[in-house]
Design brief:
alpha+beta, 3 helices, 6 strands, Beta-lactam-related, Beta-lactam/transpept-like, Beta-lactamase-related domain-containing protein
């Protein structure tokens, strides 16, 4: 994906975006501790009521990352949506599963709804696997 319309233009793949989100959470390079703390550290999280959520739980927003704390653990995610693309990066901490999705459409219900539905289905699938 490469777009100049996003808040922070990126040239990447869905796999790399998922790997980056996981690296932020599990303290891997290239993300240093100060950046990680600003993005997902408890002291920096703000309660978020207006952002998209995937699970029933408390929703917080760090520096670019949504954090959902729920009964089954913590879900981290970040998405982008502009004309021409939609992205979702998700990391399920308890399951150690990173998911990255990119579709070459966006800002239209006929595109956005199926991508969000797929994201939700994958979260449910991988969340269920950990309880078996």
């Amino acid at each position: 994906m490469n777009t100049a319309l996003a808040d922070a233009p990126v040239a990447s793949s869905a796999r790399d975006m998922a790997k980056l989100l996981k690296a932020i959470i599990v303290k891997e390079k290239p993300v240093n501790e100060r950046i990680r703390r600003n993005m997902v550290g408890d002291a920096y999280l703000q309660t978020a009521r207006w952002l998209p959520r995937f699970l029933d739980g408390a929703l917080y927003y760090g520096l670019g990352v949504m954090v959902e704390k729920h009964d089954g653990g913590i879900l981290y995610h970040h998405g982008g949506n502009e004309f021409g693309y939609i992205t979702q990066s998700v990391y399920l901490a308890n399951q150690d599963v990173a998911i990255g999705l990119i579709a070459n459409c966006g800002a239209q219900d006929e595109c956005d709804e199926p991508v969000i539905a797929l994201t939700e289905a994958l979260i449910i699938l991988f969340s269920a696997d950990s309880s078996d």
